[in-house]
């Protein structure tokens, strides 16, 4: 071996021959390959959300197929609207051997900071065809008013 040649003691990953770290490498590759499987488009297990502001209010739509009315809650706390849902696993049949399960089960929470004040008493939510629609009108701007100054009689000296 010449002075400029070196021999690595570590195996070359990606080579065709078996090496001591082969099983570990395959396990790491499997973990990374499975990491995103079953996750939502946003990178986490939460429904997709469309959020629009209109001249009169806001409208949010979430894809929640398989969820029922009792599975979802909507809360408004100040300027934060939070949608939470929970559904049980739908694969509880004992006489089947499942090879792949991708249907959603478990819980999710989505919170949206609203860019406008809403009339909290007028927030409405409806569920149909697997889509949760939330609408709310903007809060009326507080009208200013002029405060009259009262004149008090002068105190006797």
TrEMBL record:
Transmembrane segments: none annotated. Pfam families: HSP20. It comes from the Bacteria. InterPro entries: A-crystallin/Hsp20_dom (IPR002068), HSP20-like_chaperone (IPR008978), Small_HSP (IPR031107). Residues 39-152 form the SHSP domain. PANTHER family: HEAT-SHOCK PROTEIN 20 FAMILY MEMBER. Belongs to the small heat shock protein (HSP20) family. This is SHSP domain-containing protein.
